[in-house]
């Protein structure tokens, strides 16, 4: 990589590209989410019931929608495949995708409720944005997206420039098989496979043996450095120098030449190290800093990075 090239966070930047290019096919969760922030309390201070009047809103979310909402500022065409329920929220979800300009490839599970997530962040302290509590309905339809439903959408995956999937699908054996099927369809067609290694505590939820096959199918892996370090059983890196100690473990974990985009820093989001087997390509600031909204920043950054790397593919 030419050191004179600007970083993705600078060009195209975090607010969209001046000219939208490429097509992106996103497979992931689609949910209804309630978000709130507590301006007057830290979770550790709560010892009794509390009513707080604070900023709160409901929105269509989930990993697929959150990514697509940012990606439409970069990509000429964005499609979302996910499994949703069959209740009063379903038309709300479809309207939101239309409003965003996203192609709806949703599968509906008749008679099932839509998945709901509640996200609450407590009062920020002097050193960080506060603690996030995320409560997600466990039995959401997205966990039952099947391999056959993915294969029914295979033409769209083949036509896309990139497929974007994430680790939440690995939490269920059914959606895990669907994720792998989508990645195999993409690879056979020459469609780039981008994988987001979430949730950030995936190492505590799954053995590495359930995650590594997905990493092996990916061309690009987005991850917070501490997450992948814990998953691979190596010491979490500290600082830029420690990041380089992680690289041999990445080479052992995934065959081939995936591009690793490793987030690191005080909150694991301030900097990015781009690495591809035995080649340190680039290190750059993400653009994240004090006072910035953390929710959604990772999706903005990933959209910019994926567009940037596709442009140089």
Automatic annotation (TrEMBL):
Gene3D superfamilies tied to this protein: 3.40.1190.20
Transmembrane segments: none
UniProt KW keywords: Kinase, Transferase
Carbohydrate kinase PfkB domain sequence ranges: 60-234
Record carries keyword Transcription regulation: no
SUPFAM superfamilies per the UniProt record, alphabetical: Ribokinase-like
Single GO MF descriptor: kinase activity
Protein name, UniProt field: Carbohydrate kinase PfkB domain-containing protein
Organism: Actinomadura litoris
